[in-house]
Amino acid sequence: MSDNVVPLYAHAFFSVSREGEFHQLLTYDYYDPDKYYLNLEANPGEYEREIEKLWLNMQGYLEEETNEVNGRRVYPKVIYTDIQFRGSENSPFILWIISFKGEFRKGENVYVTVTEEEFLEYDCDAIWTFPEGCEILSVTTPMEYEIMDNILVLWARKGDKIGGREEIRFKL
What we know:
alpha+beta
């Protein structure tokens, strides 16, 4: 990535199934005044190397985290990475699809993630969708959040401290 590429926003969408599958679509939006990412498309070899680097870097971040479902460690894996644009050659975004599976039980379940604390350089949000009829019991996070039935929406702004131990308790 070029030094002039500036992160603008991060968005995550999680879909959680009754079978314990967690699927995440993660996107990072950037401002790219030098068109670094656009220029990669002209060279397929360089483009593929950049995709591989982005894939491996994200997988490395995931491996630094601790993720648990009901006290058992789970291991998120990157299954897809791409570079796309939002209406302008200077507005690339990188997307990752990440997946993992945990063992759910009838009644209360707990998802825990532990990440390094950091101060955000950009705004971000995350939307979690749980199965219909699921009740979100409690959320522990430094982010702002709102619960609407089986949907959890979280957000934080540039300069906010995020990370540490976060937890979502929900009832199936």
